[in-house]
Amino acid sequence: MTRTVDSTIDRPERRLRAEERTLPRHGMNHLDPLAQRTLAELAGESAGAARVFARHGLDFCCGGRIPLAEACAKQGLDPRALLRELAAEERGDDAPQTWSSQPLTELVQHIVTRYHAPLLPEIARLLTMAQRVEKVHAGKESCPRGLAAELAEWSESLALHLRKEEDVLFPLIAQDAGPRAASTIKTLETEHDDHAKALARIRALTDDHVPPTEACGTWRALYAGLAEFELELMRHVHLENHVLYPRALQSTMRTSPPDTCASATKAVPR
Ligand SMILES: [Fe+2]
Ligand SMILES: [Fe+2]
Description:
63% of the residues lie in helices and 0% in strands.
């Protein structure tokens, strides 16, 4: 998936604070301020943090509202090692991202351009590679059997999800609908949970995107593409769950017919 440089995201004030980037020297007390912040907060301030979390399978999207320390405990990760990795990533990170104060219409346009536009072509590309790998390497024990079917089914639900956002939610945001968008947003958040489950199934099928030693070039490119796809989707969902949706709900309420889940479903027939 092609990444684009976003001129709005290099905002030093939103980078991890200097004292948080300093490595701890004397035990966990020095880690507390950063370790007690949520994955969603950290990923929202640093693209590097999002990369580190994705590498370790830490969900900063739908499950991102828990402190870093708690997430590490659940995954059996050493929080000190993770914080060192965050600090190293941050030093090389020139693109922390924040949309907490930009106009909502600009945020919506950014999501459409940066995340929606390339998503379906990319999953189609990955599907083609998965079909090829499963066909050519069917006899190998390490073949990711079922991956192509998983991607094919998921691409359909992803397409519906994008349409629901672009045809129902984003127009509501443009109308400054505020809490009237609540039922649509609830539906979309549930679908984000489904995306997270699909990502987990794909990780299970691909040994966490690690190709076996006998993997050919296509196989390796497929797994690299899946890892990149996961990271992009997590950034995308993070931005919606933790920035766009909360900000949309806080917008000014205006008098007009109530929005309902039914209207969202009606606009995007299944
Ligand atoms: Fe989206
Ligand atoms: Fe979404």
